Amino acid sequence: MTRHFLEIDDVAPAELASILQFASTPHRRVLDGHGVALVMGLPSARTRNSTEMAVVDLGGHPVAMSGAELGIDSRETAEDVARTLAQYHRVLCARLPDHGVLVRMAAAIDEAGLDVPVVNLLSDQGHPVQALADLLTLAGVAGGIASLAGSRVAWVGDANNVAMSLGLAAVGVGLHVVVASPEGYRFSQGDLARIDRYAAAAGMGGTVSQADHPADAVGGAIAVCTDVWVSMGQEREREARLAAFEPFRVDGSLLDAAGDGVVLLHCLPAHRGEEVTDEVLEDRRSRVWAQAANRRVAMRGLLTWLVEEAR
To answer: For the segment 156-198, what is each residue's pLDDT rounded down to a tens digit?
Structure first.
């Protein structure tokens, strides 16, 4: 059966460890002679560049195309697009605003009996490859993936799609995540239950909890993570979001409150002066550029696992 990667919990915790191991070891040309489709239905800088270069690293040929170019569900159904691209490519990667479209594309490929994994490069529900890169970045701080178990990570801001994927990935390696968000922008009980199920499957004691104030989340954390307050598609909510998140800005004093050894993570792009200050983005504690570089490393590990080991 073809294995897709639409969210972290599409893989078992042991498989997550394998993906991270592949990412952490010298890569091989496992895609030699193969194409990889990159469907870019949303603007992209890090995602497109890191994925294209990862495919090249593995010997493959990336083919990027825009959502408008394909006309998904206007010119052609998502199912027909997926089945067509699967005739040419070993893997289909897509960055789309509607997670449901990714699910439909994966189902169409399964129904056609084609061995072509679908990878979520970002949707409104998750950003799992970013979460892989985050774990690799945190491992660089802690001295390895195994050293992360029992450590604390703070997420300050919107409990959004990026936070969801990070929460799942974090408990998969035994991390404790404390999420500080304003009322109305927190994980739902369903979200927390899903994360708890993955934590139980991992059996490493990882947890995700929620806090009302940033100061309650950051104490003792090895990393403070944040993301934009207004994501793509939320522009009409901008004024309300800016007002709600004003007390959740990550600045130097908040990093100081976390204690010695803390680092800053931000998946970028950053809205400087909103969710994060210039001061901390350029601070010695910032790891945002290493985090961006690890997107390429993470994708190499994921693609290697999908074409060589996933069953």
So the answer is: 999 999 999 999 999 999 999 999 999 999 999 999 999 999 9
pLDDT per position as a tens digit, 198-256 = 999 999 999 999 999 999 999 999 999 999 999 877 788 899 999 999 999 999 999 99
Do 2 and 115 meet the contact criterion of CB atoms below 8 Å apart? yes
The 3-state secondary structure of the chain reads CCCCECCHHHCCHHHHHHHHHHHHCCCCCCCCCCEEEEEECCCCCHHHHHHHHHHHHCCCEEEEEEHHHHCECCCECHHHHHHHHCCCEEEEEEECCCHHHHHHHHHHHHHCCCCCCEEEEECCCCCHHHHHHHHHHHHHHHCCHHHHCCCEEEEECCCCHHHHHHHHHHHHCCCEEEEECCCCCCCCHHHHHHHHHHHHHHCCCCEEEEECCHHHHHCCCCEEEECCCCCCCCHHHHHHHHHHHHHHCECHHHHHHHCCCCEEEECCCCCECCCECHHHHCCCCECHHHHHHHHHHHHHHHHHHHHHCCC
Residue 109's nearest CA partner among 79, 147, 134 is 79
Are the CB atoms for 166 and 291 separated by under 8 Å? no
Residues making up the chain, counted from first to last: 311
Q: How many CB atoms lie within 10 A of CB 219?
A: 13
pTM tops 0.85:
yes
